[in-house]
Amino acid sequence: MAFSMHAPPSVAGCGMVAIWFRLTYKANQSSQSNLIRRKMSDSILRKYEEDLHVYQSFSAAVSALIDQLLRLEGIQIHSINHRCKTLVSLKGKVGKKQHYQQLDEITDLAGVRLITHYEDDVDRVAKIIEAEFTVDSENSIDKRAAMDPDKFGYLSLHYVVSLNGERSALRENHSYAGLKAEIQIRSILQHSWAEIEHDTGYKSEVEVPRHIRRRFSRLAGLLEIADREFIDIRKELAAYSKEVAEKIERSVSSSPDNHSDPLPLDKITILNFLSHDPLIAEFDSALAARLGANLADTIILGSRDISRLTKLGIKDLSELHIALHQCQDLIMKRIEQLYAEWGGKVDFNIQHGTSMHLLMHALIAKQIPKELREDFLLESGYGSKPSFLADLEALVHS
Q1: In degrees rounded to 5, what are phi and psi of residue 116?
Q2: Using an 8 Å Cβ cutoff, are 241 and 273 in contact?
Q3: Closest Cα partner for 331 from 298, 285, 265?
Q4: 296-307, pLDDT tens digit by residue?
Q5: Cα gap 97→120, rounded to integer Å
Q6: What domains are there in the chain, each with its CATH number?
Q7: Could you tell me the pTM of the whole model?
C-alpha cells in the first residue's frame, strides 16, 4: 500500500477549501448572470434602435387620436404632448431594473402627456381613455388614490394602453400591433408641482431634509386647495352666466327705461346682452347688409370695451340698453360713414356685437367736446386718426 508523503489536510484547511470553492462557484455564476443580462440589455437596445421610428409614429398617432376624441367631446385642455424614450434613458432603465428580457415588456417607450386646466377634467379625460383604448390595468396607476393622505408629492393619473381591437384592425395601424403607450394626465397645478419637484431633485418625502419637509407639505396642500377653488370659481361663473342670460331674456321685451334689476357691466353680462338684445342684432344686420359683408357668429368684445363704456357714463346694462335706443339715428349715420369708406371695397366678415362699438362712437361724438376728443381717443386706445376725428364731428354737425 502506498502512502502520501504529505500530511493529511487539517479540518480547518478543508473548510477553507470548501469556502473557496463556494465563492468561486458563486463568482462564476454571478459572472455568467451578468453576461446574460448584458446580452439581454444589448439585445433590447438594438431592437429599440431598429424600431424607434415605429414608436415615434405610434406616440404621435395616439396623441392625435386623443386630441381628436377630446375635441369631439368638447373638452378643452391646456396641452397635449408626445415623446419616445431616448436610448440613453432606456439603457439606464434596463440597467437599473434587470428583470427585463425583451423589449415589449417595457411599457413606457411611447408616451403622451395631457395637462388639463382643472383637476376634475382629469377624470373626464380618463373616462375617454378607458372607453377608447385597451387599458393595461396591471401597469396603470392612479397616484392620486395611491398616496397616503398624510404624505406629499405630485398627483397624476398614469395609464398604460394599446389600441383596441377595432382600431388595431385598421390597415394604417397594423405596424402598431402589440405596442403600448404610457398616458399621463394631470392638471396644470399638479404639473407645476411635478416640474418643481423634478427641478429640486427631491422625488420622495424621505429625500427631503426634515426641517424643509413641513413646508413641502403645506405647499402641496395649498396647490390641492387652489385646484378645488378654481373648479368652484368655474362653477360659480357658469351659474352666474346662466342667471344673467335668463334675466336678459326676460328684459328684452321691456321698455328701455324699465329695467328694475340692472346688471353691472362685466364680460359675462355684456356678452349675454350682445347675444340677446334685438336692437344689437338689427344694427349688426344693417351694417353687414350695407357693406355687403357676411355676419359672423362670433361676438366681438375687446379688453378695453368695458372701461370705454364706463368713461362714457354707462355703468350697467340698463344704461347701455337706454343709450342704444337713444342713439339709433347716430348709429345709422355711422353705418353710412363706414359704407362711404369701405362699401364694396373689401370682402370681410362683420362680427356680432360690432354695433356696440358704433354706439360708443356715437356717444363720443355726442358727449365729448371736440377739443377733448383726441385726448379721449388716445386714452381709450382708439388712436387719433384724422379721418376718424372728422367722422365723429360729422355725426353731430352734419
Answers
A1: -95, 160
A2: no
A3: 285
A4: 888 878 889 999
A5: 34
A6: 28-201 (3.30.460.10), 267-396 (no CATH)
A7: 0.71
